[in-house]
Amino acid sequence: MSRIVLGVGGGVAAYKAALLLRAFTEAGHDVRVVPTPAALRFVGAATFEALSGNPVTTDVWSDVDEVAHVRIGQTADLVVVAPATADLLARAAAGRADDLLTATLLTAHCPVVFVPAMHTEMWLHPATQDNVATLRRRGSLVLPPAVGRLTGPDSGPGRLPEPADVAALAHVALTAGPDVLRADLAGRRVVVSAGGTREPLDPVRYLGNRSSGKQGWALARVAAARGAEVVLVAAGVDLPAPFGVRVVPVGTAEELRTAVLAESPDADVVVMAAAVADFRPASVAATKLKKKDDPREVPEVRLVRNPDVLAELVAKRPPGQLVVGFAAETGDDDGDVLAHARAKLARKGCDLLVVNDVSGGGVFGRPDNAAVVLAADGTATEVPHGSKDAVAAAVWQTVLARLP
Ligand SMILES: Cc1cc2nc3c(=O)[nH]c(=O)nc-3n(C[C@H](O)[C@H](O)[C@H](O)COP(=O)(O)O)c2cc1C
């Protein structure tokens, strides 16, 4: 359980803060809501008190004996300000402490995430943009607002991102560590493939594999949280797109190859986390394969090799691009997991290889993982057991150290 401070600014989107609060409490966190006085003109304190189970005050003159204006910030694990109004961004950037929320922002040692919501003109105004730049320079994460319908008939950038997406980002920060909120991948373009390809046998059946896509999703989510522009080529995965990530759905290895090669030429990093089928049926039946009356009569499936997408990416990579492969390995008589992985790294020629020991099927579909990152220069970095977001954060740390 973490202690989250949910700051709420006085904008129409304040009603969505109640949904965000709900997502935090349902994830088991202790949430202290600190609205501005203006926020309480949109949503009543009773809503925040009832949903959080904690008292709600806006000024520094309540609970004076507990020195709340200092203590709430000091003891927080994460501060999320949603919605962050133009006025609140200005007051935070100026270092004001004229209400409980801004005082809390000045005393918080933990990561701080601002989630702005306002009309497009207010967001694009140089004063707001300067304030955002100041807050980012000081280490806060300021999310770009979503684009869409605003209050009234207007639409454009300024919408509050979906509360579920903000909650997912907070979860990443709390499980993968505050480093993920450093915008150290800002300006970088990243392509991640995830999931498992499906090779059709007939209109109903396919040859697939057990990859759930969760590790690839985590890699994309963490890269986006760190400020990268992320394209996620998703093979056979039906998970909601992580916030700020563009998902390109694919089915077969050939479709994945086409999508990854189309997206990768101007990428700084390509991470091939998808499990791409090595083989596919030589032919796909146009109609469903039927059982014959004679039980001994079964169809023969002939397989042919699929293209090696990772090897092709390595061969075609532009100068400076980093290519990261994944290897799901099991040990056997020919060698242990790392021996197989080292041979794969040498064979494929990629810069980094993230190795998962999948003996016993322990990784697929689970929320946690552990890995070893092998580098072409011979180094091996152990990634300890943790959530797939934490593993993703460690992988990006290794990638970042090698980016030009
Ligand atoms: C109906 C209405 C909606 C508003 N919506 C927003 C908004 O979405 N974003 C924003 O920055 N300001 C909005 N404002 C203006 C803020 O309420 C105003 O700047 C206020 O001083 C913000 O106070 P705070 O930053 O302390 O919460 C709105 C005002 C009204 C009356």
UniProtKB/TrEMBL annotation:
<dbReference type="Pfam" id="PF02441">
    <property type="entry name" value="Flavoprotein"/>
</dbReference>
<keyword id="KW-0479">Metal-binding</keyword>
<keyword id="KW-0285">Flavoprotein</keyword>
<dbReference type="GO" id="GO:0015941">
    <property type="term" value="P:pantothenate catabolic process"/>
</dbReference>
<dbReference type="InterPro" id="IPR007085">
    <property type="entry name" value="DNA/pantothenate-metab_flavo_C"/>
</dbReference>
<keyword id="KW-0210">Decarboxylase</keyword>
<keyword id="KW-0436">Ligase</keyword>
<feature type="domain" description="Flavoprotein">
    <location>
        <begin position="3"/>
        <end position="166"/>
    </location>
</feature>
<feature type="binding site">
    <location>
        <position position="326"/>
    </location>
    <ligand>
        <name>CTP</name>
    </ligand>
</feature>
<comment type="function">
    <text>Catalyzes two steps in the biosynthesis of coenzyme A. In the first step cysteine is conjugated to 4'-phosphopantothenate to form 4-phosphopantothenoylcysteine, in the latter compound is decarboxylated to form 4'-phosphopantotheine.</text>
</comment>
<feature type="domain" description="DNA/pantothenate metabolism flavoprotein C-terminal">
    <location>
        <begin position="185"/>
        <end position="400"/>
    </location>
</feature>
<keyword id="KW-0511">Multifunctional enzyme</keyword>
<comment type="function">
    <text>Catalyzes two sequential steps in the biosynthesis of coenzyme A. In the first step cysteine is conjugated to 4'-phosphopantothenate to form 4-phosphopantothenoylcysteine. In the second step the latter compound is decarboxylated to form 4'-phosphopantotheine.</text>
</comment>
<dbReference type="GO" id="GO:0004632">
    <property type="term" value="F:phosphopantothenate--cysteine ligase activity"/>
</dbReference>
<protein>
    <recommendedName>
        <fullName>Coenzyme A biosynthesis bifunctional protein CoaBC</fullName>
        <ecNumber>4.1.1.36</ecNumber>
        <ecNumber>6.3.2.5</ecNumber>
    </recommendedName>
</protein>
<dbReference type="InterPro" id="IPR036551">
    <property type="entry name" value="Flavin_trans-like"/>
</dbReference>
<dbReference type="InterPro" id="IPR003382">
    <property type="entry name" value="Flavoprotein"/>
</dbReference>
<dbReference type="GO" id="GO:0046872">
    <property type="term" value="F:metal ion binding"/>
</dbReference>
<feature type="region of interest" description="Phosphopantothenoylcysteine decarboxylase">
    <location>
        <begin position="1"/>
        <end position="189"/>
    </location>
</feature>
<comment type="similarity">
    <text>In the C-terminal section; belongs to the PPC synthetase family.</text>
</comment>
<feature type="region of interest" description="Phosphopantothenate--cysteine ligase">
    <location>
        <begin position="190"/>
        <end position="404"/>
    </location>
</feature>
<feature type="binding site">
    <location>
        <position position="288"/>
    </location>
    <ligand>
        <name>CTP</name>
    </ligand>
</feature>
<comment type="similarity">
    <text>In the N-terminal section; belongs to the HFCD (homo-oligomeric flavin containing Cys decarboxylase) superfamily.</text>
</comment>
<keyword id="KW-0456">Lyase</keyword>
<feature type="binding site">
    <location>
        <position position="278"/>
    </location>
    <ligand>
        <name>CTP</name>
    </ligand>
</feature>
<feature type="binding site">
    <location>
        <begin position="307"/>
        <end position="310"/>
    </location>
    <ligand>
        <name>CTP</name>
    </ligand>
</feature>
<dbReference type="GO" id="GO:0010181">
    <property type="term" value="F:FMN binding"/>
</dbReference>
<dbReference type="GO" id="GO:0004633">
    <property type="term" value="F:phosphopantothenoylcysteine decarboxylase activity"/>
</dbReference>
<keyword id="KW-0460">Magnesium</keyword>
<feature type="binding site">
    <location>
        <position position="344"/>
    </location>
    <ligand>
        <name>CTP</name>
    </ligand>
</feature>
<comment type="pathway">
    <text>Cofactor biosynthesis; coenzyme A biosynthesis; CoA from (R)-pantothenate: step 3/5.</text>
</comment>
<dbReference type="InterPro" id="IPR005252">
    <property type="entry name" value="CoaBC"/>
</dbReference>
<feature type="binding site">
    <location>
        <position position="348"/>
    </location>
    <ligand>
        <name>CTP</name>
    </ligand>
</feature>
<dbReference type="InterPro" id="IPR035929">
    <property type="entry name" value="CoaB-like_sf"/>
</dbReference>
<dbReference type="GO" id="GO:0071513">
    <property type="term" value="C:phosphopantothenoylcysteine decarboxylase complex"/>
</dbReference>
<dbReference type="Pfam" id="PF04127">
    <property type="entry name" value="DFP"/>
</dbReference>
<keyword id="KW-0288">FMN</keyword>
<comment type="pathway">
    <text>Cofactor biosynthesis; coenzyme A biosynthesis; CoA from (R)-pantothenate: step 2/5.</text>
</comment>
<dbReference type="GO" id="GO:0015937">
    <property type="term" value="P:coenzyme A biosynthetic process"/>
</dbReference>
